[in-house]
Amino acid sequence: MTYKKREKHVCMSAAIPINWVSCCPVSSNTNIIYCIHHPTGSKLNFTNITMSTVHIHPSRKDNHPSTEYPGLTNEFQMEHAKKVEEVRSVLKEVGEDTLKALLMIDAVQRLGIDYHFHGEIEAVLERLYKKFNMSDCHNDLYELALGFRLLRQEGYYVSADVFNNLKDKEGKVQGKINQDIEGLMGLYEASQLSIKGEDILEEMGNFSSQLLNAWNTNDDQSQARIVRNTLGHPHHKSLARFMAKSFLSDFQGTEGWINVFKELAKMDFNLVKSIHQKEIRQVSKWWKDLGLAKELMFARNQPLKWYMWPLAVLPHPSLSEQRVELTKPISLVYIIDDIFDVHGTLDELTLFTEAVNRWKYEAVEPLPDYMKTCFNALNGITNEISSKVYKDYGWNPIDSLRKSWAILCNAFLVEAKWFSVGHVPKTDEYLKNGIISSGVHVVLVHMFFLLGHGITKRNVDIVDDFPGIISSAATILRLWDDLGSAKDENQEGHDGSYLDCYMKENPGTSTENARCHVMHSISETWKLLNQQCLPPNPFSSCFTKACLNVARMVPLMYSYDGNQCLPIEEHMKSLV
């Protein structure tokens, strides 16, 4: 590939080779570093230049630009647009039939086509929210549970006390609901949105799961499959697009609107698939041009798998550019993790961590060549994304991005030091460091700026300081990963495990009991995450849902089956 040499003071927003100039503008009165990569690829020259004050764009709404659909005929796109309007009309004409409206909203969300109908969904939920706490609105268990779940999912706070109406005067759950399978599934789904202190929801979750598990042996195989899917993949903790195929096969009914919804979902799948295939080509080309796979033979070479993260976390079709850009720091998280976990010596890792903390030439110069190559790529990607964010939103995030990388490498180094001396830390110490070394903070910091929603000094400070909505998602990832059902990619690394720490701290604990403890911790962390997604929440709905999607994605990325296969791999194959 041929590259043109740029003038020293020209900012480049495209991917650049590591032996030419990369630069990035900064926000008010901040020093900018122009990094000049010499043709040898081994030396760096950093020059500080002071920039004048720049104006920062105000907070932006979650507006999505129009989307282009490559590889699809105009006829198909026109037919798709017609079908969208047909479904929109159905949603608008639902009237005062609350249960029917809720069923429709649930259907479009589970089919992954809700992004077309935010206005219609919000109108229905606003009406429901105004009357939800009125006791005479909850004669039907399924309607009560579904309404509660849909409102909570969209950020409306409704009290869990409405479920106390399911108890008799003695405080026991009324026996009449024991045989209401649909209502019990709705109740179990609603319980997944509980927050700390909502004992009634936890009680209802346990009650419904016990009855559903007992009913699961019923002779009605179709209903039993739906029950199993509900227990194993409750909607709130699952990714709609990854479950849509299963929902389509179970989505039955006699009303005409069901078929219209199905038709749109099938068309939409092909439409979105065309976008994802284009993005895969872009990511593959970027990764090949970057050259790290050839330079760092010991590291993982899985750009498609890394792309699955932004695909899941940012599902809106219009966020194509953000998905491609987010894949770049995600790839570096994996590469740097491999440097710390499988290749670098402790002395080298200490030098690399110092270089990332200082981000200066004199700190990079002592590094071995393979680490210089990695740092050059890291520096180039950081500058590139910073330049793009500044151009789009008027805020330079370079300090935040560099800080996030330093925090990550510091955590990696702590783990490397533990391993070097055979130290098994206490569980609290391990987890505090482990949620940082998960890489979630780095990725979500980059995503926050790439989305450009609500970039203010206050929100940037919150993001930099590892807020609860990020740390909860990171905790869920770390604990899932540490369940240790398989070694990732057969890497013979030095990773520790929360399970190991817990069992050493609690002598005599069986592996099974330790795993139960981890699953309970994951469940409790979900309650925190649910709370952090409710108002008051300083972040946009898009960023908030992306944090939720990180937690939802984790089981697909870390739950290996008996054949060492991941659930995500089937979806990956469908895109290639």
**Uncertain stretches:** 1-62, 485-491
The proportion of strand residues reads under 5%
Distance between the termini: 24 Å
User: Can you list the strand order of the major beta sheet?
Assistant: 1-2-3
Specify the helix fraction band.
55-70%
- DSSP strand tally: 3
- N-to-C order of helices and strands: EEEHHHHHHHHHHHHHHHHHHHHHHHH
Structural class: mainly alpha
Annotation field: number of helices: 24
Mean pLDDT: 84
Largest sheet: number of strands, sense, barrel closure: 3 strands, antiparallel
What are the salient characteristics of this protein?
3-stranded antiparallel beta sheet; mainly alpha; disordered N terminus
Q: What does this protein look like?
A:
The chain is an all-alpha fold. Helices cover 61% and strands 3% of the residues. The protein is built from 24 helices and three strands. The protein has a three-stranded antiparallel beta sheet. A hairpin with an 8-residue loop joins β1 (21-22) and β2. α12 packs parallel to α16 and α18 runs antiparallel to α23. The chain is globular. Residues 1-62 and 485-491 have low confidence and may be disordered.
Structure at a glance:
It is built from 24 helices and three strands. It is mainly α and 576 residues long.
Secondary structure blueprint with pairings:
Elements: E1 21-22, E2 31-37, E3 44-50, H1 74-92, H2 98-110, H3 118-131, H4 141-153, H5 181-191, H6 199-215, H7 221-232, H8 240-250, H9 256-290, H10 292-295, H11 303-313, H12 320-343, H13 346-358, H14 361-364, H15 369-393, H16 398-420, H17 427-437, H18 440-451, H19 457-464, H20 468-481, H21 498-505, H22 511-532, H23 541-558, H24 567-575
Antiparallel strand pairs: 1-2, 2-3
